[in-house]
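step=encode ok
step=design start
structure_in=
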């Protein structure tokens, strides 16, 4: 299930349950002849029903649907007005489903702010109108509910962020992982097509990995890979992105970089790696394949394959070398 679908379901169920709850209150008050409270509950349940309809209408853009804020401001201010104008402090418990809705539907800060705008004046009214002990008990209940719901939402947001980070970041090296590469490269290709700026990529592979693993062990190779990632981060400029493909290969996306530029940076990477003293194994070299997008390159696999082939060509010419392969050019 995508995040948008998850939000649509939770918002829909939230509004649905709130509508059912408030509608029951409306019916009960109608039965006992409390017409003011009946009209209030009927208005609030109509608003939650609008929220449900809005959720269904905006189901494809639920993450950016701004109308929820207006609907919830309407609900919260409706209840606050009733607390101020009707002499029935008992309806403070109607705030409970509203607090949950605020936090369930709005971004955390907005949800907490709107809830406090309801709870603080409501508490003052309650302290003024109800017996002290009763007022304190009800206010405490509201704050406990608000805190628990806010902590739960904060925890969920935090977990979702960690899951997203894990999905796109290699846990060992901190670079982006291969799954994220195609998505980013496609975006950069579209951007390069739209703006006409050059785009280059680099495929980089550590030389003689089997020999290094035999000689120094797999753990040393893993450490070398991490050290090389850190090193590459210090060589590339902001805006370039680094991806780890497997335990021995890297990929770099270099926006705004023409052929002359990618030749410079590829050679710089090769030289600095060869000159470096690596803590786990001493000396190491890399073979680098580089390519620049031609006007016929519109897909990621073409660029990835060409960079990979260029890296194999570099290796064929002897380790510790760079090979550049020109982009596909189509004449109109
Ligand atoms: N994407 C990318 N390109 C680089 C990088 N370093 C050098 N280049 C390319 O190589 C060209 C020449 O770079 P340098 O020899 O460092 O000269 P420079 O004039 O100091 O480079 P800039 O001020 O970064 O443009 C640059 O214009 C870039 O196109 C890098 O880290 N990333």
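sequence_out=
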């Amino acid at each position: 299930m995508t995040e948008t679908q998850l939000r649509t379901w939770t918002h829909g169920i939230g509004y649905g349950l709130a509508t059912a709850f408030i509608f029951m209150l409306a019916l009960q008050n109608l039965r006992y002849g409390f017409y003011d409270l009946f009209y209030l509950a009927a208005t609030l349940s109509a608003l939650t029903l609008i929220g449900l309809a809005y959720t269904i209408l905006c189901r494809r853009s639920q993450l950016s649907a701004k109308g929820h804020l207006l609907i919830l401001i309407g609900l919260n201010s409706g209840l606050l007005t009733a607390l101020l104008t009707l002499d029935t402090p008992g309806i403070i418990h109607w705030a409970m489903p509203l607090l949950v809705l605020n936090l369930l539907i709005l971004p955390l800060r907005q949800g907490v702010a709107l809830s406090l705008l309801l709870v603080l004046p409501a508490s003052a009214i309650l302290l003024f109108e109800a017996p002290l002990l009763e007022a304190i008990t009800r206010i405490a209940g509201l704050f406990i509910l608000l805190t628990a719901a806010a902590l739960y939402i904060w925890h969920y947001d935090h977990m979702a962020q960690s899951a997203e980070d894990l999905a796109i970041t290699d846990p060992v090296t901190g670079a982006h992982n291969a799954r994220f590469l195609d998505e980013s490269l496609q975006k950069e290709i579209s951007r390069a097509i739209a703006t006409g700026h050059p785009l280059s990529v680099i495929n980089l592979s550590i030389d003689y990995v089997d020999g290094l693993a035999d000689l120094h062990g797999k753990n040393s190779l893993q450490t070398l890979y991490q050290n090389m990632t850190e090193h590459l981060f210090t060589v590339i400029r902001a805006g370039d992105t680094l991806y780890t493909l497997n335990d021995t290969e890297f990929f770099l996306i270099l926006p705004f970089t023409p052929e002359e530029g990618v030749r410079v940076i590829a050679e710089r990477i090769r030289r600095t790696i060869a000159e470096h003293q690596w803590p786990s194994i001493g000396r190491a070299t890399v073979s680098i394949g580089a390519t620049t997008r031609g006007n016929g390159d519109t897909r990621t696999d073409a660029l990835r394959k060409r960079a990979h082939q260029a890296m194999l060509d570099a290796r064929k010419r002897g380790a510790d070398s760079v090979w550049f392969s020109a982009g596909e050019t189509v004449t109109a």
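step=design ok
step=annotate ok -> Residues 236-237, 240, 254, 257, 261, 264-265 surround guanosine-5'-triphosphate (CB under 6 Å).
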